[in-house]
Design brief:
single chain; alpha/beta; Nucleotidyltransferase, domain 5; 5 helices; 5 strands; disordered C terminus
């Protein structure tokens, strides 16, 4: 029997970086989810190092096959966009450092895959993540739910692409 793939989903941010680790495709199983929270009074290099170190710990513990990151969408808040970009860079660097491939999806692609609607709100995403993964409670905080949603989006896309390659219907 082939071992099931492990996917690490990331919702990037320097104040709060959401992560979600899932195994399998249909059904997918949640292994862990949560946030890495940094202190706003820390200097940015220290915050980025904390993100790196905690992501490295997750990678070492769960040995994911792929890291999936939400793409940065245009933001009117330049400071926030730069901060998210820095967190994305740390996540990508950590993946590259450990030999893990990185896949990216836009927020609309994630919402479409998880909720069937590209403009779904946070509550709808949380409800669907709970349902898809068979969780007892809503995944919180939002950043963790979003990270799980990114991971779910990927396994759905990868499962569909794999079925097209093998010629078997989904």
């Amino acid at each position: 029997m082939t071992p099931q793939r492990v996917t690490l989903g990331i919702d990037p941010g320097t104040a709060r970086l959401g992560y979600g680790v899932i195994r399998g495709v249909d059904p997918a199983e949640s292994l862990e989810f949560g946030i890495v929270e940094t202190k706003s009074n820390q200097e940015m290099p220290s915050r980025l190092l904390q993100l790196h170190d905690e992501l490295l710990g997750l990678i070492r513990e769960y040995r994911p096959d792929v890291m999936v990151i939400e793409k940065l969408f245009f933001s009117r808040n330049v400071t926030n966009a730069i901060s998210v970009g820095q967190a994305r860079g740390v996540a990508m660097l950590t993946a590259a450092e450990t030999g893990i491939s990185v896949v990216e999806y836009t927020p609309a692609e994630v919402k479409q895959a998880v909720a069937g609607y590209g403009n779904a709100d946070k509550a709808q995403i949380q409800q669907m993540v709970k349902l898809i993964l068979g969780l007892d409670e809503l995944p919180t905080p939002d950043d963790a739910a979003d990270a799980l949603a990114v991971a779910i989006c990927h396994v759905q896309h990868a499962g569909f692409a794999g079925s097209l390659e093998s010629g078997s219907p989904q």
